[in-house]
Design goal:
The complex is a heterodimer of chains A (321) and B (271). With 321 residues, chain A is an all-alpha fold. Chain A is 71% helix and 1% strand. Chain A has a two-stranded antiparallel sheet with strand order 1-2. By secondary structure, chain B is mostly helical. The chains are: A mainly alpha (321), B mainly alpha (271).
C-alpha cells in the first residue's frame, strides 16, 4: 500500500503514514538537508547493525579459538593455519572456483546474447523478455525442487528428452562431475538481473552512432564490434564482479536441497561450507578465517568496481551533465 | 524485404527462447498433477493424462502447510511495505545531499552490492540474538529496516535522480519540507521503479530459504520454503506432491510479476 502513492490511502498503512507525517512535522527545526539525512538513518543504522557489526566480529574472532560456549580465547593465526590443513575447506574452495569459472562466463554470455537479441523495443519480443526474467524470481526452494525432478536420471524429463535424441543420459546429481554441471546449468536460467542491466546499457547507446557508422559503410557485425561492445564493456565488467559474488551465494539452496553437498562433497560450495562450519561444527574461529579470505576477495572486487564506477560517472550512472 | 524476414526470424527466436525459459516451470506444473503410484514415464509427458488435483490437497495434510503459509504471509505483509518505505526514503534522501556526501554513499552502496549474505551469516546470529530475535519471524523481517537490500535503495536513487532538480527546488522554495517533496513530487514520478522494487522485494522475502534455515528452529515459526524442504526430506520419491508444493509456492510471484508487467513495465511506443 505504501508503494502506491495517493492523496490519502486508507487502512493501516495510511494511519502509519499519517503518524510519520505528524512526527516529521514536529521536527521543523531541522533544515531541509537535516530532514533528508533523517530519511537515510534506517538504511545506514540497519546496515551498520546487520552488516558492519557482524563483519567486524568475524574479523576479531578469526584470531581466536571460539566454539560459542566458552568466551573466545586468543589464538593468533591458528585458525588460518587450520584453514590450510582442513580438507573440507580445500574441497569447498576448489568447488567454488570450478563453479565460478564455469558459471560466470556462461551466465554473462547468455545475458548479453539475449539482451542484444531481445533488447529492441518491439512488442513481438516482449513475451520473450518476460519469460527470460521469470525464472530469476522463482522462489529458490521451489526452483531447486523442480530441478530435482527434471534431473531425475530415470524418469526426469531432461534425460527422457536426451534419450529421445539418442544422446547419453547422465546420472546428474549421483555423480560428482555431472552434479556440479547440473548446478551450473540451473544457474544459467536465472540471469534476469544481468539481462535487464545489459538491455538498459544497450538502450542508452545513442542511435546516431550506428547511423553514422552505416553512412560510412559499416555492417551490423562491425557495428557490434566497434560500437556496442566497447560501450557495453564497463557494464560487463561491473556485472562480472557482482556475479562472482551473487552466483556463488546462490549455490546455497540448490546444493543444500538437491544433495546437501554430495555426492562425495562435490557440491560443497562456499556458502554451504560456511554454514556447516559455523552452525554444525560451531567452530566459529575457523568459520571466521574462511570468511576473512572471502572478505579479501570481496575487497579486491570492490576496488575493481570503484575504478569502474569512477570511469562510468558522468555517463549513464548519474546523468551528471 | 530483408527486414521482414529478419523480423520473422527474431520473433521465432524469441518464441524459442521464451519456451526454453518457461519449460522447467511447465514440466513442474504437469508433474504436479501426476497421480502417485503410476509407473515412471518412458517418454516426456507434455500433458497430464488424468489430472490428479488431490496432490495439492494432500500437501496440507502431509505437513502443516497452512501454518507455514500464514507465517510466510505475515513476513511478506510486514517486510515488503517496510522495505519499500525505507528504501524509497533513503534513495530520495541521497538525491538531496551535497555532491560529496552523495557520491560517497552511492559508491558505498554499490560496494555493498558485492557483499554476499554469507559474509555476515555467522555473527548476524549473535546480533539477532542480542535483540532476542533468533527463532522468531522478526529475524526475517528486520532486514527491511535497512531497505531490504542496497539494490532497492539504488533503484530508487536512480529513479529520483532522473527527475529534474527544478521540480524539487521549486517545491522547496514554496516552503515544502523534505517529507512533502518526497510524497508529493518524487514518489508519483517514480511509480514504475516502485512497482519493480515491489516485485523484487516480494520475491526476496517470499522465497528466502537461508534466513529461516539459519535462524529459526521451532517448527511453529517455519515458513513455506522450509516447509518444502521438510516435504522433500520426508519422501523425495513423491514427485507429484513435491511439484505441487513448488507450483503453489511459485504461483503468487508469477501473478505479481504479470500484474506489475502489464501495469507498469510494458515498453511504451515512443511517438
Amino acid at each position: 500500500m505504501i508503494s502506491q502513492p495517493g492523496s490519502s490511502s486508507a487502512g493501516q498503512a495510511g494511519t502509519g503514514a499519517a503518524w510519520i507525517q505528524r512526527a516529521a512535522r514536529r521536527l521543523p527545526r531541522l533544515t531541509y538537508r537535516g530532514q533528508a539525512t533523517l530519511f537515510l538513518l534506517p538504511y545506514l543504522l540497519g546496515t551498520l547493525v546487520l552488516v558492519v557489526v557482524p563483519a567486524l566480529m568475524t574479523l576479531g574472532v578469526s584470531f581466536t579459538d571460539y566454539h560459542a560456549i566458552e568466551p573466545p580465547a586468543w589464538a593468533g593465526l591458528d585458525s588460518f593455519r587450520r584453514l590450510a590443513k582442513t580438507p573440507l575447506v580445500q574441497v569447498g574452495l576448489y568447488n567454488t572456483l570450478v563453479f565460478a569459472a564455469a558459471a560466470v562466463p556462461l551466465r554473462l554470455a547468455a545475458a548479453l546474447g539475449l539482451a542484444l537479441l531481445l533488447g529492441g523495443r518491439s512488442r513481438s519480443t516482449g513475451l520473450a523478455r518476460a519469460a527470460v526474467f521469470l525464472p530469476t524470481i522463482v522462489p529458490e526452494t521451489a526452483y531447486a525442487l523442480l530441478w530435482l525432478w527434471i534431473l531425475n536420471p530415470v524418469s526426469g524429463p531432461l534425460n527422457l528428452v536426451l534419450a529421445g535424441f539418442g544422446l547419453p543420459a547422465p546420472a546428474w546429481m549421483a555423480e560428482a562431475g555431472t552434479a556440479r554441471a547440473a548446478i551450473v546449468l540451473m544457474s544459467l536460467l536465472q540471469i534476469g538481473e544481468g539481462f535487464v542491466v545489459l538491455m538498459a546499457a544497450r538502450q542508452i547507446i545513442p542511435r546516431a552512432l550506428y547511423e553514422a557508422a552505416e553512412v560510412d559503410g559499416a555492417n551490423r557485425w562491425q557495428g557490434f564490434w566497434r560500437i556496442t561492445l566497447p560501450l557495453i564493456t564497463p557494464w560487463l565488467a561491473l556485472l562480472t564482479c557482482r556475479d562472482l559474488v551473487v552466483a556463488v551465494q546462490n549455490t546455497f539452496t540448490p546444493s543444500f536441497v538437491l544433495a546437501y553437498g554430495g555426492p562425495y562433497y562435490a557440491t560443497i560450495f562456499l556458502p554451504l561450507l560456511v554454514y556447516e562450519i559455523s552452525f554444525d561444527f560451531t567452530d566459529l574461529g575457523l568459520a571466521s578465517a574462511v570468511l576473512v579470505v572471502v572478505y579479501a576477495w570481496i575487497l579486491l572486487l570492490i576496488w575493481g568496481v570503484r575504478n569502474l564506477v569512477e570511469g562510468l560517472r558522468g555517463r549513464a550512472l548519474s546523468h551528471e551533465e | 524485404m530483408r527486414s521482414r524476414v529478419g523480423r520473422l526470424l527474431a520473433a521465432l527466436a524469441g518464441m524459442g527462447i521464451a519456451a526454453l525459459f518457461l519449460l522447467p516451470l511447465y514440466w513442474a506444473a504437469v508433474a504436479s498433477l501426476r497421480a502417485p503410484g503410476l509407473p515412471p514415464a518412458s517418454s516426456v509427458e507434455w500433458w497430464p493424462q488424468q489430472p490428479h488435483w488431490a496432490n495439492y490437497a494432500r500437501l496440507f495434510e502431509t505437513v502443516p502447510m497452512a501454518r507455514y503459509a500464514r507465517n510466510s504471509l505475515f513476513v511478506v505483509a510486514l517486510a515488503v511495505p517496510l522495505t519499500l518505505l525505507t528504501a524509497s526514503l533513503a534513495g530520495f534522501a541521497l538525491t538531496q545531499l551535497r555532491d560529496r556526501a552523495r557520491r560517497r554513499l552511492v559508491t558505498a552502496s554499490i560496494a555493498l552490492l558485492l557483499v554476499p549474505s554469507m559474509a555476515v551469516w555467522t555473527f548476524r546470529f549473535h546480533v539477532l540474538n542480542a535483540f532476542g530475535l533468533v527463532d522468531t519471524l522478526w529475524a526475517l523481517i528486520v532486514p527491511a529496516l535497512a531497505g531490504g537490500s542496497p539494490l532497492f535503495v539504488l533503484l530508487f536513487y536512480w529513479a529520483y535522480w532522473r527527475i529534474p532538480r527544478e521540480l524539487y527546488e521549486s517545491a522547496r522554495l514554496d516552503g515544502a519540507d523534505a517529507w512533502t517533496v518526497w510524497r508529493r513530487i518524487a514518489r508519483p514520478l517514480a511509480r514504475p521503479t516502485a512497482a519493480a522494487a515491489l516485485l523484487l522485494a516480494f520475491a526476496l522475502y517470499w522465497g528466502d530459504f537461508s534466513t529461516p534455515v539459519l535462524y529459526l528452529f521451532r517448527p511453529q515459526v517455519y515458513t513455506l520454503p522450509v516447509g518444502l524442504q521438510l516435504l522433500r526430506q520426508m519422501d523425495d520419491t513423491q514427485t507429484g506432491l513435491l511439484m505441487a508444493g513448488s507450483v503453489l509456492m511459485t504461483l503468487p510471484v508469477v501473478l505479481l510479476f504479470i500484474i506489475v508487467q502489464v501495469a507498469y513495465l510494458r515498453p511504451r511506443r515512443i511517438p
